[in-house]
Design brief:
There is one protein chain. The chain is an alpha/beta fold. The protein contains 14 helices and 13 strands. An eight-stranded parallel β-sheet has the order 4-1-5-10-9-6-7-8, sandwiched between helices. A three-stranded antiparallel β-sheet has the order 11-12-13. Strands 2-3 form a two-stranded antiparallel ribbon. It is globular, with a radius of gyration of 21 Å.
Length: about 400
């Protein structure tokens, strides 16, 4: 037997004879519709927004959230009221992974629902102009490059004066979400963060990961820690380093004991007051581990003693609509939870968007001044080059 007689040798030669024309056309079309990736991505055939799953892989099925239109060509994005976008990253998880399938699970379960809510008296499809941008292309083996992708993707959406609804993904994505929108906010950003953990350590296992987003987010000049409110903190899986940073930076921690003592409504009022103090807008962040694992078992770091499911939905209902700039959901693991977690995520998405709709009707949904943010290429605190085509970077090295 000789090497040239091997079937493998023959197939090596056969590959050279297969044309590459159609695949090259797919790549070109994906780059045109999905935009160029962040500056740190070496392979320039990878688009910013995934548009060719046959080329780069995809963690979301061929569906959209609530069946809204799919924004195939991101160059043609105008200024819809709401853009749903996936950030299927779980490279920042230190315990149970799988939340890369979160956007797929949330989109899939959303197909069961119509967008009409009897109790709220809202039909989102009639009230809001909504599109689904698909998933931001993340780099599973490189969390920092994935951050750059998410920064640029969120910046592109916010530049177009939309309300981004980001479906994670592990909680590490909270940092690039805020970093992406910060240059477009004239003033400070308040942050309301539902979680059982502070996520305020500087590094996890020598990297910026799911326990670090709000340490780095509050390094951004217009996202000060005094406007950070964390609700649901507690349990036996916390980080003393994170608690130390939260204390020294002046962040506000609200425990489940506080919620039991004062009630979620009063806690919500306090959170809004702190987040809004001298701020122009509020970023709302939900980690599913803030829900008791009896109701949401599919999370990377389950922590008993969290919010009950009804409380979680109520908290979404009273979330800040006036001046809200983005909403983010993280850590649903559909392959572990049998659909419970993603169903809760879907409900919270709809509640939050419904709340934004109510504020829009009052003229206060998209900025602190009662008007939607203006589209512009240069912003305070950083530079966004040419409608999202260039790198989104802050001048401060601490970011």
């Amino acid at each position: 037997m000789k090497r040239n007689q091997l079937h493998g040798t023959q197939m090596l030669q056969a590959e050279a004879e297969i044309p590459f024309k159609r695949r090259a056309e797919y790549i070109e079309e994906a780059l045109q519709n999905g935009l160029e990736s962040a500056w740190s991505i070496t392979d320039r055939t990878i688009p910013l927004f995934g548009r060719a799953p046959i080329l780069t892989g995809k963690y979301s099925a061929a569906t959209t959230f609530l069946g809204v239109p799919f924004q195939e060509d991101m160059r043609a994005l105008e200024s819809p009221d709401v853009v749903f976008v996936g950030a299927p990253l779980d490279a920042g998880t230190t315990y149970r992974s799988g939340t890369r399938f979160g956007p797929e699970g949330i989109r899939s379960i959303s197909g069961l629902y119509s967008g009409y809510n009897f109790e709220l008296g809202v039909d989102l499809l009639e009230s809001l102009d909504m599109v689904d941008a698909g998933d931001i292309t993340v780099i599973p083996a490189n969390i920092e490059k994935s951050f750059d992708q998410i920064v640029k993707g969120v910046a592109y959406l916010h530049e177009h004066a939309t309300f981004p609804v980001v479906m994670g993904g592990d909680h590490a994505i909270g940092y690039p979400d805020i970093r992406g929108l910060a240059p477009y906010v004239d003033g400070n950003i308040g942050i309301i963060h539902f979680d059982r953990h502070t996520d305020m350590t500087e590094l996890n296992m020598d990297e910026r990961m799911h326990g670090t987003p709000f340490f780095h987010a509050t390094n951004i000049p217009n996202a000060p820690p005094v406007n950070l409110v964390q609700i649901g903190i507690g349990g036996w899986n916390g980080s003393r380093y994170g608690v130390k940073n939260a204390r020294e930076r002046g962040a506000t921690s609200i425990t489940m004991t506080d919620i039991d003592r004062f009630g979620l409504e009063r806690v919500g009022e306090m959170a809004l007051e702190i987040a809004w103090k001298n701020a122009s807008c509020v970023f709302l962040s939900f980690d599913i581990d803030s829900i008791d694992p009896a109701f949401a078992p599919g999370t990377g770091t389950p922590e008993p003693g969290g919010l009950l499911r009804g409380r979680r939905c109520d908290s979404c209902r009273s979330s800040p609509g006036k001046g809200s700039v983005a909403w983010r959901w993280s850590r649903s693991l559909p392959i572990r939870c049998g659909g419970h977690d993603v169903a809760i995520g879907r409900t919270c998405h709809l509640r939050c968007v419904g709340n934004a709709r109510d504020r829009r009707e009052a003229g206060t949904a998209f900025s602190g001044t009662g008007s939607r943010p203006k589209r512009h290429a240069r912003a305070r605190g950083g530079i966004i080059r040419g409608r999202g085509r260039g790198p989104a970077r802050f001048d401060s090295a601490s970011v």
